[in-house]
């Protein structure tokens, strides 16, 4: 890198930073661990809320780096974290999430829960694959029709976890369908042994009504996630061979789920900020590709990876975010990132 002593960034021209974002109602950032998904989600959320759009940033990553990135404590319930703009954030604590029942299902299942067992009583319970993903799905279902938020930006857990999250609607739909079918097949038997459960038939009908409502919500969630007018799953990668390979696999798997991917974000590219964003950047420390051998060799590695990425990029909107000399945290640098994503 250069040996120039550059003072820390104190402010970025407001006119150069996007006010609002051109994005659907749900924006999910996914990719290999450590590629910068939290940074992108935070930058997008900040930009989205700047034009008055009520925006919620959801972190489903157990590492919970969103608080560090935004430099504020983020609780386990949606909380407005900026007074001047409608920006909300929540970090999911899987243990707390499983102590709740946001859909209100198991309490009304009554005797059906006794018959099927505790694990089946709560379809989002411990029997489901991936506790943090199930907790995230709970919140997505809960916030789907939440009138407080016009846009939800999701910082997902690393790729393997994300894919299990995306499997949950299929798993849930299958399980709820089986429960409903089981109830209908056993209706005669249930009626004959109603005395075993007290007010069994009435409670069973109430429980089955809740299951049908849950099934409808799952189907709605699936429709939203698969609708490019509603959802953009954005794959974040860095210009390195392993990240490219991971991104290729993720794109293939997302395609199998029918999840639209509109944007590819290439993070930590060794370019000048002015090459990727229309922003004043006197403060930006650029890689010295003329005299720094380390910078030159890293740039060669990145160029090879970027060349390999052409198939990944094809058909997608590609955004590049440069490698910053400083750790990207706090609103000032996040606004610079938002300008790169515009």
UniProtKB/TrEMBL annotation:
CDD domains per record: ArsA (cd02035)
Pfam families, alphabetized: ArsA_ATPase
Stretches assigned to the ArsA/GET3 Anion-transporting ATPase-like domain: 26-341
InterPro entries named in the record: ArsA/GET3_ATPase-like (IPR025723), ATPase_ArsA/GET3 (IPR016300), P-loop_NTPase (IPR027417)
Gene Ontology molecular function: any one: ATP hydrolysis activity
Family indicated by similarity: Belongs to the arsA ATPase family.
Name of the featured protein: Oxyanion-translocating ATPase
Organism field: Halapricum desulfuricans
